[in-house]
Specification:
Strand order of the largest sheet: 3-1-4-5-8-9-12-11-10
Helix content: 25-40%
Number of strands: 24
Radius of gyration: 25 Å
CATH superfamily of the largest domain: Cobalamin-binding domain
Shape: globular
CATH architecture of the largest domain: 3-Layer(aba) Sandwich
Number of helices: 24
Distance between the termini: 64 Å
CATH class of the largest domain: Alpha Beta
Strand content: 5-15%
CATH topology of the largest domain: Rossmann fold
């Protein structure tokens, strides 16, 4: 029997829908840059459903028009408690612009994929409008955009440092990271009559106070004073030095409070909550979602982001990879919060009841698909840890990397008679599956997992992300040596061959990442060609707030060492690096020939564009020896750009 929903199954988006529930006002109004999809993969729906379950009347204002007379911001009236504002599931600037700063022509979170249904810097724009219309009503901001812009940050699109989004927007309080835990505490205090302005010590929140005011008391946290916003504007070194504290305190289980002066105000960032327990994260995914877009979009076309995930299952949150260019741990945390088998299998059953389900689960995954149930063997060791990654430069001896729980869960999903096939489409951490790198897997579960994955759960091809072939670049990225990708490919090909399967491996790579020079890209092209790849899944590095790589891009310094790191910023040079990915395109051949001749490496032309045999350095796995790489013009590691 297929699921059926009445219009009032969705949370109200209009006055008429409020009246259908018998409501004359709302306690909380969630304003979002995304269309309203009532599904656990959409943050605004999760937060709104949580507010509902806590006993409050909540409505959603999706993609309000900010360019007319602002009637959309008025149609639900004034909330009794607060407005909750989010730009949506993406930072609005990443949503709008490519790495080359070209405007995108579509938006995956809008019906029909149409663009221009949210403003640039959506959180700030929405909040300013609400503060103008309802100056006495508190505004709480959250989501990816607010979370990653909570402190002084570099904005790639304006090419400047910007202060905390609290200062820019005028919001009353900011919830960073996954918001269920702080929101429940906030709601509880507001229900007791505590005003929003008094909520200064809620974990995982940030507030702005007058600089003359003492730091809030009644808590046991120590406070780390960051360099002021003004100091960061004057001195890139101070900005870079701040980030080490920001990243470490974001990922600790017992973190310190952060403080930063911004003009005549003081930003206070309270420590995060500890990682959600299984019962807590189950409760979030078990909220009463319809799992569908609101019916009002039925005539406007499909919502691409929903179509991509509607038959998928998210098994966990968080990622302990700590990649320098990635924001997952900054928002979801380093520690893995895993759902119970019962909750996951219950959701699988719900998916099988969806109207157009044809028997295929599109993804059993998470931020990194194969981290489910992984955690420290001794929690007290994790509680003292400040490392941003559990697997770089080596896999931590305290990390339980057993894949047995995942293997067993995959098998249980396969046993559901309504499921023909359950795919794993999320990227996996291939290095966790290489015994040469992952030497702590005492359970010897890696082979069993790979057998199960490759035989039953690959949707035609498997995506993995080595990101680069150069060890120096990979160290900046906090990624493993490319030699481990070679090891993984051998294991992957062997299992495919044994089972008479033809499932290509699709590697992802990044150009123009901090630390990457032209010779690194030339070597990447030659080495991947030698492995039989014509690269497709590639991208140019995009600096986004709250990552190590972005701090390096802006400052030229690594925030943990404060030593210089070469970074290409020139648009032409960035485009040139990217061209090496596509050596097989005829239009790039002449440019490659000219570039390699100019660098005095004519022998590489034949290796890349011809069919000459290649000579690898046996120690480094690189196509060129060290002396040849020098002639390409690599800067001295101690020089600044």
């Amino acid at each position: 029997m297929k699921l059926e929903h009445k219009t009032n199954s969705w949370l109200p988006t209009t006055k008429k829908e409020m009246e259908m529930r018998g409501w004359d006002s709302l306690d909380v109004i969630v304003v979002s840059g995304d269309a309203y999809v009532d599904h656990p993969a959409f943050g605004s729906a999760v937060i709104a459903r949580l507010v509902e379950v806590e006993g409050y009347r909540v409505g959603i204002l999706p993609q309000p028009n900010w360019r007319d007379d602002l009637r959309d911001f008025k149609k639900l009236g004034k909330p009794n408690l607060f407005f909750g504002v989010t730009a949506g599931c993406m930072d609005s600037m990443v949503n709008h612009y490519t790495a080359a700063k070209r405007k995108r022509s579509n938006d995956a979170y809008t019906p029909g994929g149409e663009a221009n249904f949210r403003p640039d810097y959506a959180t700030t724009v929405y909040t300013k409008i609400l503060k103008k219309l309802y100056p006495d009503t508190p505004v709480l901001i959250g989501g990816i955009e607010a979370s990653l812009r909570r402190v002084t940050h570099y904005d790639y699109w304006k090419n400047q440092l910007m202060p905390s989004i609290l200062e820019e927007s005028g919001a009353d309080i900011l919830v960073y990271g996954m918001g269920e835990q702080p929101l429940k505490q906030i709601l509880g205090l507001l229900s007791k009559g505590v005003p929003m302005q008094s909520l200064k010590t809620i974990k995982q929140t940030a507030v702005l106070l007058p600089v003359s005011e003492e730091l809030p008391k009644g808590v046991h946290w120590n406070t780390i004073e960051l360099a002021s916003h003004e100091k960061c504007l004057e001195d890139k070194r101070s900005f870079a030095a701040n980030f080490k504290h920001i990243e470490q305190e974001s990922n600790k289980q017992n973190a310190e409070r952060l403080s930063q002066v911004i003009g005549d105000k003081r930003l206070v960032i309270n420590p995060p909550f500890q990682t959600m327990k299984e019962k807590e994260i189950d409760a979030s995914f078990d909220l009463p979602f319809t799992r569908l877009p609101h019916p009002k979009y039925s005539e406007r076309g499909a919502i691409p982001a929903f179509e991509m995930i509607k038959f998928s299952i998210n098994m966990h949150r968080g990622c302990f990879g700590g990649c320098s260019f990635c924001t997952i741990s900054a928002h979801q945390g380093k520690m893995i919060a895993s759902r119970s088998e019962k909750s996951i299998l219950k959701e699988v059953e719900a998916v099988t009841e969806m109207p157009d389900f044809k028997g295929y689960i599109s993804d059993l995954g998470g931020p990194s698909a194969n981290m489910y149930k992984m955690k420290g063997k001794v929690q007290s060791i994790c509680d003292k840890c400040s490392s941003p990654s559990c697997i770089h430069p080596v896999v931590c001896h305290n990390l339980d990397t057993s894949h047995t729980a995942m293997t067993n869960l995959y098998k249980k999903v396969d046993e559901n008679p309504k499921v023909k096939k359950a795919f794993v489409s999320s990227g996996i951490r291939y290095d966790l599956l290489v015994p040469e790198h992952n030497k702590v897997d005492e359970s010897k579960s890696l082979t069993a997992y790979m057998e199960q994955l490759i035989k039953h759960h690959i949707p035609g091809r498997l995506k993995v992300a080595p990101e680069h072939t150069s060890d120096p670049v990979l160290r900046v990225m906090r990624k493993p040596s490319f030699k481990h990708f070679h090891d993984f490919k051998k294991r992957y090909d062997k299992i495919n061959h044994k089972n008479n399967l033809n499932q290509p491996l699709i590697p992802y790579f990044i150009s123009s990442h901090p630390g990457c020079e032209m010779q690194d890209m030339a070597n990447l092209a030659i080495e991947t060609k030698d492995m039989g790849f014509k690269l497709e899944q590639v991208q140019d590095f995009t600096p986004t707030p709250m990552t190590v790589a972005t701090v390096i891009y802006y400052s030229g310094l690594h925030p943990y060492t404060l030593k210089p790191v070469y970074t290409v910023k020139d648009a032409v040079k960035k485009k040139d690096q990217n061209k090496f990915f596509f050596w097989y395109k005829r239009e790039n051949h002449q440019w490659i020939k000219d570039t390699l001749r100019k660098a005095q490496h004519p022998e590489m032309i034949n290796k890349l564009l011809g069919f000459a045999p290649q000579q690898r350095d046996s120690k480094q796995g690189a196509v060129l020896g060290k002396s040849k790489k020098k002639s390409f013009g690599r800067k001295n590691k101690n020089s600044r750009k």
